[in-house]
Design goal:
Length: about 290
Amino acid sequence: METTEQITRTDEALKAIVRQTYSEIALQDKATNESSCCGSGGCTTEVATIMSDDYSTIEGYAPDADLGLGCGLPTQFAKIKQGDTVIDLGSGAGNDCFVARAETGASGKVIGIDFTPAMLDKARANADRLGFVNVEFRQGDIEHMPVGPSVANVVVSNCVLNLVPNKDAVFSEIFRVLKPGGHFSISDVVLLGELPEALRKDAEMYAGCVSGAIQKEDYLALIAKNGFQNVTIQKEKAIVIPNDILNNYLSPEAAKAFGSRDSGIFSITVYAEKPDAAACACGTDCC
């Protein structure tokens, strides 16, 4: 069994891989990122994009902030209202922040959190160019957010929690920063069935959003464990890893078996609410 020190060392090593990878991604164009495994490198020529959804028709979309790294459209489902304060976890170049800003309006506020300096530089430059004074970007680890308690009406995130070793800590932090009655809408990658060992252990596939994913059932259990209610899957889609990626890690027979089985890798968009303190009575589950 691993000691706490060993787990911490492993977690920090994974974070270093992610930080380095996404520092490089920040300097690439969208076309290069989309043709890679979640932006992690030029590992496929079979499809134009593996995970990302099309933002181009959504109000607030800023092409220069779209690096093609997402696995859903969480802001589309996030029920953001005028005047809301929204936090985006792993905000990258700012794409979801700018879409959220279109929903919350000039009377609201959007806070993006990212731990990659190159991404923050790009996001801040985009916000300055767009003239958005109510969108700010903070450097920090989403396991320990640089935000006070009960700040946000809504939390969004797009294909980021799968990159975080301690997902339980992130959900605990989301609960802390949400106002009572607030909610989140998060797009993420989860598993059904076992991921082949070669994929699970590879660092590139971790930074590429795949091997850091956990079982869907475990993911939803973490949400409930941290006190959220009304947990709902708003959207789900299968993620198909092209054969030219799988063949880098698996034998042809194993790649074929992985691609044909019922289980696999999925993108889900999950909604959940922090209980409203005014609606709770002591002695109930939400107190």
